[in-house]
Design goal:
single chain, alpha/beta, Pyruvate-ferredoxin Oxidoreductase, domain 3, six-stranded mixed beta sheet, 8 helices, globular
């Protein structure tokens, strides 16, 4: 049976773990038998700058970059980052947004104002929006550092990949000492999506 194309954009700021999230998602698709292409843009990652990962999966994928207006999913690690990538959204897009605000240097210095209309702007592109507090859930599990795995779990609830594949990929990509807490975070994210 042919694999349906799936275009995913993972966006956030440096240090949030979105590059690891992109690797986990890519490897899960590979393990599920998809052709996968991935691209990462690190920007000023070390300074809290924008970081994005494109993941494209399907029967046969030719380009690693998600075309504009063609994202099936945008996984945003904080509110403002999704605004930078709204040109990738269309009516078919599901926007999964972490309920977190990270002030960029321009806002922290008082030079600009943090936008307070993020959700209204996203709703102009798509009605499929889920906002979750992945950081709070990760703290409840034991450490906020695994909020990226909570977000992977939220996205995983929407994807045609069985849970055992996600577990296998985590075992391959995450240090053994951190595996248990990341798998708990994955489970919490799956539950948070309510699907």
């Amino acid at each position: 049976m042919a694999k349906e194309d799936c275009n995913i954009l993972i966006v956030g700021v440096g240090g949030q773990g979105n590059i690891l999230a992109g690797k986990v998602i890519s490897q899960a698709f590979v393990a599920a038998g998809y052709d996968v292409k991935q691209s990462e843009v690190h920007g000023m990652a070390q300074r809290g700058g924008a970081v994005s990962a494109h993941v494209r999966a399907g029967e046969k994928i030719y380009s690693p970059l998600v075309p504009e207006t063609s994202a099936h999913y945008i996984l945003s690690f904080e509110y403002m980052e999704i605004l930078r990538y709204l040109n990738y959204a269309g009516p078919q897009t599901t926007a999964l947004i972490n309920d977190l605000r990270v002030d960029p240097p321009s806002v922290a210095s008082g030079g600009m104002k943090y936008p307070d209309d993020t959700l209204d702007r996203v709703k102009q592109k798509t009605k499929n929006i889920l906002v979750v507090d992945a950081n709070k859930v990760a703290r409840e599990i034991g450490t906020e550092r695994v909020f990226n795995s909570v977000l992977v779990g939220v996205l995983a609830a929407y994807l045609p990949i069985k849970k055992n594949i996600w577990v296998k990929v985590y075992k391959e990509l995450v240090k053994e000492s951190l595996l248990d807490i990341n798998l708990k975070a994955l489970d919490a994210g799956l539950a948070l999506a309510g699907r």
